[in-house]
């Protein structure tokens, strides 16, 4: 089965991001706005208990933290993605690294950059237009991160929650 | 904020139900297939910790169980809903009752009937057609219930996970 690990920012941030995703993100209906901690990966049923144990360990050692969201950026030309950048993101990096060690380690060709996608799979012209109009915008959103979630993907491409992990370190 | 409490059946059941929901359920893209334990309700931020405590208590005392799904039924004429019926549903009733006591108590005009919606808000003719063709079908699906989830609703009507509660009674 295909799993993924994400942070959902607070509702106000999700609503803000959805106002753009509705137009620019074909995954709009498949999953709420999120920060990916670990991209989709395959896991056998028999491996699940061990994975849960590892994630629980990570969540036991990590403390809740705040992140700020103030501007839009893009992965162009690598990927035709526009996103809300995550500032003060060291804690997100650390979570990503801890989750991606042990049995859930996978090599990735990309550097991990914490972000919330606004638009993806965009035509080059559209991406330039949209990014051009959004790149000078400044906003001032903050969200508390005190949990992450393990999700799994259904046949239609949408994601269902499997389990929440509360950050409960000191 | 608007919250709801659900059970997500195993992936095979969700995929089966989605094959119908795609055509007959306008909420298809808003939430994965689910058994509602508690309909949408309002909760102030200040009430959330107490609610979480109550739900945690319920989940500590409840044991995992299995449910069988073998046929389709309808709430017509009360509601234009077609659903997969939940058999051996006493455990689901008990969960519903425990969750709906204490601070999360709300009166409801409807009797609680555990179900997984396949279609809703259907025109009467369509409902009769679809139900007529599905009512004689028998299938043999089983799903383990070892957790429930607290969700909240975004402005666009879709639902995001807040927290998982693992059933960990003996």
Automatic annotation (TrEMBL), chains A, B:
Annotated motif HXTX 1, positions: 34-37
Active site: 34, 115
Top-level taxon in the UniProt lineage: Bacteria
EC number: 3.1.-.-
GO molecular function list: ligase activity
Keywords: Hydrolase, Ligase
Residue span of motif HXTX 2: 115-118
InterPro entries the record matches: 2H_phosphoesterase_YjcG-like (IPR050580), Cyclic_Pdiesterase (IPR009097), YjcG (IPR022932)
SUPFAM superfamilies from the UniProt entry: LigT-like
PANTHER family for this protein: PHOSPHOESTERASE SAOUHSC_00951-RELATED, PHOSPHOESTERASE YJCG-RELATED
HAMAP family per UniProt: 2H_phosphoesterase_YjcG
Family: Belongs to the 2H phosphoesterase superfamily. YjcG family.
Protein name as catalogued: Putative phosphoesterase JOE21_000875
Organism (species): Desmospora profundinema
């Amino acid at each position: 089965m295909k799993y993924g690990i994400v942070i959902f920012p607070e509702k106000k941030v999700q609503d803000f991001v959805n106002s753009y995703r509705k137009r620019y993100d074909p995954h709009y209906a498949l999953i709420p706005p999120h920060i990916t901690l670990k991209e989709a990966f395959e896991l056998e049923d028999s491996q699940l208990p061990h994975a849960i144990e590892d994630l629980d360990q990570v969540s036991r050692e990590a403390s809740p933290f705040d992140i700020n969201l103030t501007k839009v950026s893009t992965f162009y030309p690598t990927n035709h993605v526009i996103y809300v950048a995550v500032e003060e993101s060291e804690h997100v990096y650390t979570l990503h690294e801890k989750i991606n060690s042990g049995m859930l380690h996978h090599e990735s060709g990309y550097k991990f950059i914490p972000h919330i996608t606004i638009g993806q799979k965009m035509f080059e012209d559209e991406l330039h237009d949209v990014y051009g109009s959004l790149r000078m915008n400044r906003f001032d959103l903050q969200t508390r991160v005190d949990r992450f979630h393990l999700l799994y993907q259904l046949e239609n491409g949408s994601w269902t929650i499997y389990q929440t992990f509360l950050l409960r370190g000191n």
